[in-house]
TrEMBL record:
InterPro entries: ICDH/IPMDH, IsoCit/isopropylmalate_DH_CS, IsoPropMal-DH-like_dom, TTC_DH. It catalyses: (R)-malate + NAD(+) = pyruvate + CO2 + NADH. This is D-malate dehydrogenase (decarboxylating). Gene3D superfamilies: Isopropylmalate Dehydrogenase. The keyword S-adenosyl-L-methionine does not apply. Residues 5-346 form the Isopropylmalate dehydrogenase-like domain. It holds the Pfam family Iso_dh. Its EC number is 1.1.1.83. It comes from Bordetella genomosp. 11. Its cofactor is Mg(2+); Mn(2+). It is an enzyme of class 1 (oxidoreductase). The lineage of its organism: Bacteria, Pseudomonadati, Pseudomonadota, Betaproteobacteria, Burkholderiales. GO terms for molecular function: D-malate dehydrogenase (decarboxylating) (NAD+) activity; magnesium ion binding; NAD binding. Keywords: Manganese, Metal-binding, NAD, Oxidoreductase. Belongs to the isocitrate and isopropylmalate dehydrogenases family.
Length: 354
């Protein structure tokens, strides 16, 4: 039997609620499949853990994580810790330390879900976010703190190697989709160095993918295209910050942030990849049992695909879609179901398929 080791890091807020739901569904899938098993280990790293221990990840933490096949991550962010501290304490050290440079964010309106757009059914996108450098390179500083002459810098860093590999990844992914279309998003009219280099390298890489059609949009203009002409987009490749913003818009246009999944991939598989719902810790609803677990289920399906279990992944997606079609919705989608209700419904749908 194939066995996969999964490091579960529920983290903060609703992270533990949705990861628990996700693991329940994953265990049921493995049991019904019979062909693969999961060995799950929990890591308690969170903002509460940080307040107690002074760090999110212990000194040997990354070395321990490295042995796993995948990381199943909930959320990080808490009222008690500044956001930039929690982000740089937990999520970024893993994503950057494990060179998970390709962040994949699919967006689609699931059956039964209502998009705010009239033609929301046309949304079928994958946003590829550069996940290792750019605006998140951590390159900056502050001087003259507190004085009237205080200065703060935040310099985006783009390397040829970093840009080329994300473009190559995006072209390969676009090649595997029916429409084979890739849109390059930058801001190379106003930013004439790193962004112009992004554009140039894109067209260099494009020569190796004559079967993928391309076009190009500025990041401000692509927001209007997402809203007004959703059918014209397929795969989008953009920088760390641009794609961060675009993927929230994509999630809202798909009906809710509560359904949007993401994969932080190290495509070379030198390190484990990390799978997480996009939504974050949502402390306004933490502990109420109403967090939407669909984003985490979809995330689990992406993880199964990555692990090499495409059949189980497809079964899970089908179960998710049958539950959204039946409108078993948590409050973010306008319903009154709880996390447990949606989880039970997905488990029942999987049971019917078995
Ligand atoms: C995301 C999130 C994070 C990011 C936050 C929590 C720092 O918005 O994964 O999209 O900006 O990377
Ligand atoms: Mg974001």
């Amino acid at each position: 039997m194939r066995e996969y080791s999964i490091a579960a890091i529920p983290g903060d807020g609703i992270g533990s609620e949705v990861i628990a739901a996700g693991l329940e569904v994953l265990r049921a899938l493995a049991a019904a499949d019979g062909g693969f098993g999961l060995r799950i280990e929990h890591f308690p790293w969170s903002s509460a853990y940080y307040q107690e221990h002074g760090h999110y990840i212990p000194p040997d933490g990354l070395a321990r994580l490295k042995a796993f096949d995948a990381i199943f991550f909930g959320a990080v962010g808490a009222r008690e810790v500044p956001d930039h501290v929690s982000l740089w304490g937990l999520r970024l050290p893993i994503a950057q330390g494990f060179d998970q440079y390709a962040n994949v964010r699919p967006a689609r309106v699931l059956p039964g879900v209502k998009s705010p757009l009239a033609d929301g059914k046309d949304i079928d996108w994958v946003i590829i976010r550069e996940n290792s450098e750019g605006e998140y390179a951590g390159n900056g500083g502050r001087a003259h703190r507190g004085l009237p002459i205080e200065v703060g810098t935040e310099t985006a860093v783009f390397t040829r190697a970093g840009v080329e590999r994300i473009h190559r990844f995006a072209f390969n992914l676009a090649r595997g989709r029916p429409r084979r279309h890739l849109t390059l998003v930058t801001k190379s009219n106003a930013q004439r160095f790193g962004m112009v280099m992004w554009d140039e390298i894109f067209y260099e890489v494009a020569r190796d993918f004559p079967d993928v059609s391309t076009d190009r949009e500025l990041v401000d203009a692509v927001t209007t295209r997402m809203v007004l002409k959703p059918a014209t987009l397929d795969v989008v490749v953009a920088t760390n910050l641009h794609a961060d913003i675009l993927s929230d818009l994509a999630a809202a246009l798909s009906g809710s942030l509560g359904i949007a999944p993401t994969a932080n991939l190290n495509p070379e598989r030198s390190f484990p990849s990390m799978f997480e719902p996009i939504h974050g810790s949502a402390f306004d609803i933490t502990g109420k049992g109403i967090a939407n677990p669909i984003a985490t289920f979809w995330t689990a399906a992406m993880m199964l695909e990555h692990l090499g279990e495409p059949a189980a992944s497809a079964r899970l997606m089908k179960a998710i879609e049958s539950v959204t079609a039946a409108r078993v919705f948590t409050p973010d989608l306008g319903g009154s179901a709880t996390t447990a209700d949606v989880t039970r419904a997905v488990l029942a749908a999987l049971g019917r398929m078995a």
